[in-house]
Here is the input.
Amino acid sequence: MRIAIVADIHANLPAFEAVLRHAEADGRIDALWCLGDTVGYGPHPNECLALLRRYEHRAVAGNHDLAACGRMGTEEFNEAATAAAQWTAKRLKASLRSYVQDLPMVVSEGDFTLVHGSLRWPEWEYLLSSEQAQAHLELQRTPYGLVGHSHLPFVCLEEEGKPPPDGGPSGPRPVGALVPAIDGQAVELGSQRLILNPGGVGQPRDGDPRAAYALYDSDAGVVTFFRVEYDIAATQQAMEAAGLPHWLSERLSYGR
Here is the structure.
């Protein structure tokens, strides 16, 4: 099976469409796994949700999804994110609002656990350090974990062949650094437990404005990271026309 792994689409339809075209260039994808924040920030919430639902898919809720459907307040959001969440909430179609309201926080799919932020705090924790990854892995019951939220593509391995930090036989194994993933990087899935972040489709934050995603080939046991050019100007024009905060559209040019 070929499964596209996406996160943080953020209602950016040109980016999402470009990712799907890229994923399907070498053959049909069998499913989409979405790690949350399909909406928020961008100008195409209904279109992105509808496109996601055309595919066989598994999806979890992100903080912006929760805010858009009323399952979360925006007290912890910055001013621009709050404005975008309110804009989105007013425009979600009723059927799509119901779909978002029913999204689970965590999904297990075979050898993978899907969550937006972390297993400690699914909707909100940014997994950015080895210490956070360690805590996440202590809760992970599958070999492999998939997270989004930070918009940063990375690979984090649980290290083998080292004694647990407390010296005991059953303590947690140490976790390596969160290593940034680059375009075309293939990760072979083996006995090491790991956490992967495919990066952000619709709002990258690693200084590369290209849309990010990953492709899982279950037959080969490999996850490959990709970056894809898309029409950034088209999204920016749609955001400006919608009256969304200018800073949110401007940052797309810089991948920040």
